[in-house]
Amino acid sequence: MTITLAESTRQLALIVGEVFSGVATGGSATTLDDTACTDFPDDFWIGGTLWLTSGNNIGKTAVITDWDLTTNKRFTFATLTLLCAAADIYTVCHKNFSRQLLRNAINQALADMPRVTQLNSALTPVADQLEYDLPSGVSGVVRVTKGVTPNFTIHHNWSEYNGHLYLDPGKTFEATDTINLWYNPPYTALTADTGVIADLVPWERVKWGAVVYALRERYNKVGDSDTSVKNKLAEAMQQAEMARVKYPVKQLPRDPRYATY
Q: Looking at the domain assignment, is residue 176 inside a domain?
């Protein structure tokens, strides 16, 4: 399942935060109106986060700079470029779990995950060539194979350095070989709404790991003055452990390098 940073933070907010979901009755590039949103006092949502889940700005988030209950039932935020309009579906979350906190929680959960081994078959072999530029996005190589899965052989005479793959003399490829690179890519933090969590990464495991981080951050601020946070944190830790067991991540270790004689 492909999930963006924007959607992942929204799903996280639905678990940890005080949220409201509604349908806009109007808007602009910097505002969204909802005449049905009447249960929250003036300025209540300031500093919180707005997610657009339909309409021109679907998949975008914004930090709320004003909530005007009295006059317009209006959220205000920095420009989204495109116009919000009636019938746009949205979600908002209170500032107790800010957009930055939610993003940090997702990224921390991802950083704690074992790297998911991925496969790249874009390397074009050249007979007797000893050095290759690794394909874009490939690093942390752990296995090099020749042939098509499952009928392949493992190549044990290579090393990786600074974006290049080096082969030992006498252990080169043939021009007709099919080369597969198995690699554990390093973690790269997601910063934009459109950033995507890799399909191979189990979302349930990331989600509950992020819930733990978000609630722990909140607990560090409020302590035992809000027992609900402490109770939610204890439950989230149990859910995170169950997800870790239920959704193991298979990571290939680096194959041994054979000596050349």
A: yes
**Is the model more confident about 141 or about 152?**
141
Domain co-membership, 203 together with 158: no
- pLDDT single digits (tens) 211-223: 999 999 999 999 9
String of DSSP letters for 26-91: EE-SSEEE-TT--SS-TTTTTT-EEEE-SSTTTT-EEEEEEEETTTT-EEEES--SSPP-TT-EEE
188 inside domain: no
pTM for the predicted model, two decimal places: 0.86
Condensed to tens digits (0 to 9), the pLDDT of residues 28-41 reads 999 999 999 999 99
> Has residue 169 been placed in a domain?
yes
The answer on pLDDT for 20 being more than 90 is: yes
Domain range for 149 = 118-183
Closest C-alpha to 9, from 62, 56, 67, 47:
62
How many domains does the structure of the chain reveal?
Answer: 3
Are 84 and 25 members of one domain?
Answer: yes
CA 128/CA 170 separation, integer angstroms: 8
Contacts of 122 (CB under 8 A, 6+ apart): 135
